[in-house]
Design a protein that fits this description.
heterodimer; A: alpha/beta; 4-stranded mixed sheet; globular; B: alpha/beta; fumarase; 5-stranded mixed beta barrel; 6 helices; 7 strands; 26% helix
């Protein structure tokens, strides 16, 4: 067994929380540039220019690209040959969030009780997804998730008879109804299959894939392509003010399903499609 | 599409001249407020109490800024989604609020009251928060400090770039813009 001190995880998380909020991925920046070149709406072009300038300021000045520095969603892939020592993993992760949000002057956006709504003041608790995998490494991904786009997301228990056309209609309807609210241009994560909670998890996980990435399943890659074309015909455009650049990418993840069920989740991410990862 | 320089406070006459799609550079004093502050303001109005800020002729920016780094007036400060303020907005419009800055669609009720009272809704570019922060020269908490990022702040702004989304004639750029580019 390889021993890893949990304090090392704390340190990495604190760093990743800041990097994710300061440095927008090159894949997103390139997608903005494509939109700037191809969108025929002058308003769309003006907005995409502002977003490129904003990303540059955030990176250079080490300030968050968006004031909503998100719910800290953390994916941990823990090698089964790793022995964690020196403390509790969950507490070590939350301590990393606490330190990262303080050091980085990031906004604290979490309330401790969803109905009493008192801010915890340190952005904890994080949402943590842990998976045990073969090997002796730990892969950590930090994906701060903004509230505006999360609010436009939905899980629907569809009928198997609804099929691929039903799934497409649902995704298109979600993007259309969300309109300007989730800060387009957006990234759309879709989870199909599994159970109620599993498809929501898949949709979230789909958001971690780089823009332009294709599903390894041929039919699903085709579905992603068709959905991207369809949603960009809606005319919503950057910030919902009209244009062609509504969705930067649609990523679909699938899982086995019950004979009675077709669960589908659509998780929407704003253009601040933030995620950073490291391997310990 | 005109580009217009405006300074707060805004008069009804000035506001009624604005049209959807106008690009505005706004300067002067504005106030911040989100869900929690709006709830408190409207509770005060319902109880017949005075508000901690005079909203007459003023503009409210829906924002919960990131903390300021040392030496800076404010952290990143882009708009939040406006529909969450819709239940509270008519009451403030009735008190003379002339403008709102946010992102995303408003309810029909809000748009109708804006038309009656003569008010404007501007969009700032959501997520362009680091860029917008550069237009904010001063920031001071003036009410509800206990709400943290959701406290009401008085901001001094210079040439904040905005787009008129809902004018006082009940036009909606989100509807017009998407229709123009829709292929379905």
């Amino acid at each position: 067994m390889r021993e890893v001190e949990v304090s090392e995880i704390t340190k990495e998380i604190a760093e990743l929380c800041q990097e994710a909020n300061f440095e927008l991925g090159e894949d997103v920046i390139n997608a903005f540039k494509d939109g700037l070149e191809n969108d025929e709406s002058p308003t769309a072009k003006a907005i995409l220019e502002q977003l490129l300038e904003n990303a540059k300021i955030a990176r250079e000045d080490r300030v968050p690209m968006c004031q909503d520095t998100g719910f800290t969603v953390i994916f941990v892939e823990l090698g089964q040959e790793v022995k964690l020592v020196g403390g509790d993993l969950e507490e070590a992760i939350n301590e990393g969030v606490r330190q990262g949000y303080k050091e980085g002057y990031l906004r604290k956006s979490i309330v401790s009780h969803p109905l009493k709504r008192e801010n915890t003041g340190d952005n904890t608790p994080a949402v943590i997804h842990t998976k045990i995998v073969p090997g002796d490494k730990i892969k950590i991904t930090v994906a701060p998730k903004g509230g505006g786009s999360e609010n436009m997301s939905e899980v629907r228990m569809m009928k198997p008879a609804d099929g691929v056309e039903g799934v497409k209609d649902f995704v298109i309807e979600r993007v259309k109804e969300s309109g300007p609210n989730p800060c387009p241009p957006i990234v759309v994560g879709v989870g199909i299959g599994g159970t109620f909670e599993k498809c929501a998890y898949l949709a979230k996980k789909a958001l971690l894939r780089p823009i332009g990435d294709e599903s390894p399943h041929e039919d699903i890659a085709q579905l992603e392509k068709e959905l991207l074309e369809e949603v960009n015909k809606l005319g919503i455009g950057p910030q919902g003010l009209g244009g062609r650049t509504t969705v930067l990418d649609v990523n679909v993840e699938i899982y086995g399903a019950h004979i009675a069920s077709l669960p589908v989740a659509v998780n929407i991410n704003c253009h601040a499609a933030r995620h950073k990862e490291t391997i310990i | 599409m005109a580009e217009i320089k405006l300074t707060t406070p805004l008069t009804e006459e000035k506001v009624r001249e604005l049209e959807v799609g106008d690009k505005v550079l706004l300067s002067g004093t504005i106030y911040t407020g989100r869900d929690a502050a709006h709830e408190r303001l409207v509770n005060l109005l319902e109880e017949g109490e005075d508000l901690p800020i005079d909203v007459d002729g003023q503009v409210i920016y829906y924002v919960g800024p990131a903390p300021a780094k040392p030496g800076k007036p404010i952290g990143s400060a882009g708009p939040t989604t406006s529909y969450r303020m819709d239940p509270y907005t008519p009451a403030l419009l009735n008190e003379g609020l002339r403008g709102m800055i946010g992102k995303g669609s408003r309810s029909q009720e809000v748009k109708d009251v804006m038309e009656e009272e003569g008010a404007v809704y501007f969009a700032a570019v959501g997520g362009a928060a680091a860029l917008i922060a550069k237009c904010i020269k001063k920031a001071e908490v003036v009410a509800y400090e206990d709400l943290g990022t959701e406290a009401i702040r008085k901001l001094e702004i210079e040439d904040l770039p905005l787009i008129v989304v809902n004018d006082a004639a009940n036009n909606d750029l989100y509807e017009i813009g998407a229709e123009e580019y829709s292929e379905v």
